[in-house]
Design goal:
alpha/beta; eight-stranded mixed sheet
Length: 266
């Protein structure tokens, strides 16, 4: 574990592996932290890739910034971390909110992206009712903390059959959610409520993309992934059977195999 002072905050991150020709930078979702990428970091760093995972502001071991955190702030933090690590271009991946941050990063810094991994995410702007819901949830987390929310959503984050079959995975996901600072989670929710629409942006992406989705994901169902696959000019779609919103943890072997095939074709 290392820390970086970027944009006036402290970012906790891991920089593993060695080969620099296809560095991977993986962005976690909400309300998680960089440990959600442990199976990917371990496998691809062992294979010789340089793998960078970081805690977003407000999450994990990074600084908590109350208020509202637009996706642009997360993207600019990633760019600043890349500068510090002398990374000019990366294959940028993200899951759920992390995928939206990856799209925002591409909007701001397209020349710094050599490829995209968009997992269990969607590009549309928030609907009015969604904005109300996210802001109300932010208020709730500030008032009640993360425990009740984590208990309510665990069987959507991880498929119920995987909670039974892989209790250690469910425990990891619950642990990340319960230990996320409510102020950071609330700030991100308010920022996501105001996110732009990335649907047209996807049609202009000039780098290869891998779209991944859990077959039983309720938050971002397969049809969302199919839409992104259709929008992106050069993309591959991988549907991970036997998983919900976190296929990288529920079915790491299958997820890693899809990513390895994608990297091999670059």
């Amino acid at each position: 574990m290392a820390t970086a002072d970027v944009n006036g905050i402290i970012i906790g991150y891991d920089d593993q592996g060695g080969r620099d020709d296809t560095p991977l930078l993986l962005v976690h979702g909400h309300p998680f932290n960089r440990t959600m990428w442990a199976p990917q970091a371990e496998e691809f760093a062992s294979a010789g890739y340089r793998v960078v995972t970081a805690d977003l502001r407000g999450y994990g071991e990074s600084s908590v910034v109350p208020g509202i955190t637009p996706l642009e702030d997360f993207a600019r933090d990633i760019a600043a971390l890349m500068d510090l690590l002398d990374l000019d271009r990366v294959l940028l991946g993200g899951l759920s909110m992390g995928g939206q941050i990856a799209m925002e990063f591409y909007r701001l810094f397209p020349r710094r992206v050599s490829g995209l991994l968009l997992a269990d995410t969607f590009p549309a702007a928030e609907k009015p009712e969604g904005r109300v819901f996210r802001n109300a949830m932010a208020d709730r987390l500030l008032a009640e903390g993360m425990g009740g929310y984590a208990d309510e959503v665990i069987d959507k984050m991880v498929a119920p059959y995987n909670i039974a079959a892989f209790p250690e995975v469910a425990a990891h996901v619950l642990g990340m959610m319960r230990t996320t600072p409510p102020e950071g989670a609330a700030a991100a929710l308010r920022g996501r409520a105001e996110r732009p629409d990335y649907c047209e942006l996807l049609t202009k992406v000039t780098v290869p993309a891998l779209v991944v989705v859990g077959a039983d994901d309720e938050y971002t169902p397969v049809n969302d992934a199919e839409f992104m696959h259709q929008q992106l000019p050069d993309s591959t779609l991988a549907i991970i059977e036997g998983s919900a919103h976190m296929p990288n943890l529920e079915r790491p072997a299958e997820f890693n195999a899809a990513l390895a095939r994608f990297l091999g074709a670059l």
